[in-house]
């Protein structure tokens, strides 16, 4: 086992939190490399696994969930390998992307079957709790075959949560959900993350990831392109000028003054205000108030315009 | 009843595929009743109906439909993931599924073959056919259950075994009969109720040992393959 795994077992007790460690994980199919040398550690909180279609997100998730063996490297939950080790499912829940449910069962029967398969001491109570968590009480006795896609998804989430796992992996969990269900699911993931659960969800929709999680793992062409808080990732991209939207009492005068500032590489003036490109995030944000004060200009608005996950992501994909 | 058994049985009887099981047993009973009511000599209709239809077609085809259905259908539609994401040793998944497959096959085949055996000869032959079919159901089910874990086309491969190996080669190349579940079932039934209606060149000890070996061997193979079950790794 790797040093990383040893650290994980030496950390907080498994009953409280769990850590999923990937060390040098690769997976290839013939000549095609789907996942290439990925090392990451997932701890408590919500993490978004982001990447364009075909980036290797699902392959990575399947390896984490023990449904695929890594061609190289190790995947371990609290130091135990996930591959060929069903015992890890006591602490791990999976909601796969493929919409697969036993349509001949009701949501209650489906979740109860999961609870019984987990050998929970009180499966009925666990089932009621999981169904409440996803707000499926009203339809719980109807056959799953009659459900909408979003309801099926929530039923699957309830089944994955019935044993209150420390780690929950979700592959594109918001697919097919309406905006209200989406918000509800986002709130649920937040709550679970805040309660110390390790939550990883994959998505290729930036808005979803941005709303649910500040921490991202960005996959591009099978590689882990970036990891951490996306705002921090953006600030570390020093070769990309930061773009700010600035509105003030005298935009033209401020534009002239800013051009003399070393950290500013370009200023654009239009009817709505200024668009400033700055090479150094910290230097510019410190210089602006000083410059404005010196010229008697009042800054009304300062907005970082490319600090969204979308711009971070597009920079990473372009790189 | 274990939860895996319950889900498997609900899944099996809940699919329209299950309706495919009904016509063959009905044809078997219908032919036996017809021959008997028309007063045809059992020596004439017994071998083609009992062996040619009952043991060579109804038993393996029913076993194929059920055996590939108990796990293969769940693999096809992805629902197997729900059972696999539980902390269960994989034998606790395979054995209940095998029990459901073998049990359903044994009952579906046992009833018509018993009726046909009684009409052709005696209650003893009927019971012998039921017991031998049950042993055959177990061996076939283990084989087809394992096939659904080693290939993506278990039905096709199962049909090749039943039609080509047992049906065609078994008829013309006598050596292949030693490795034919159908011939083992005939040998076992003939041992329990000796009758000229059943005939095989395979000895009873060989049949008994090979039936047990196939049942155990393919079950062990299925358990091992389920431990290493991989979900297709296509990326989204």
A few lines on this structure:
The complex is a heterodimer of chains A (319) and B (236). Chain A is α/β, with parallel strands linked by helices and 319 residues long. Chain A has helices at residues 3-10, 57-64, 107-117, 123-133, 149-161, 179-194, 206-212, 230-236, 251-259, 281-294, 309-318, and strands at 20-29, 32-42, 45-50, 72-77, 80-81, 92-95, 167-171, 198-203, 215-220, 223-229, 242-248, 264-270, 273-278, 299-304.
Q: Could you walk me through the main structural features you see in this protein, from its secondary elements to its overall organization?
A:
By secondary structure, chain A is α/β, with parallel strands linked by helices. Chain A folds into 2 domains: 3-229, Rossmann fold; 237-318, Alpha-Beta Plaits, CATH 3.30.70. Chain A has helices spanning 3-10, 57-64, 107-117, 123-133, 149-161, 179-194, 206-212, 230-236, 251-259, 281-294, 309-318; strands at residues 20-29, 32-42, 45-50, 72-77, 80-81, 92-95, 167-171, 198-203, 215-220, 223-229, 242-248, 264-270, 273-278, 299-304. In chain A, the strands form 3 sheets. Chain A has a 6-stranded mixed beta sheet with strand order 6-7-8-3-9-10, with helices on both faces. By secondary structure, chain B is an all-alpha fold. Chain B has one domain (3-227). In chain B, 76% of the residues lie in helices and 0% in strands. Chain B is built from 10 helices and no strands. Chain B has helices spanning 3-14, 23-37, 42-70, 72-77, 80-84, 91-120, 123-150, 154-172, 181-192, 204-227. In chain B, α2 (23-37) runs antiparallel to α3, α3 packs antiparallel against α6 (91-120) and α6 (91-120) runs antiparallel to α7. Chain B is globular. In chain B, 52% of the residues are buried. The model of chain B has no long low-confidence stretch (mean pLDDT 92). The chains are: A alpha/beta (319), B mainly alpha (236). At the A-B interface, α2, β6 and α3 of A face α1 and α5 of B. Chain A: It comes from Micromonospora marina. Chain A: This is ABC-2 type transport system ATP-binding protein. Chain A: Keywords: ATP-binding, Nucleotide-binding, Transport.
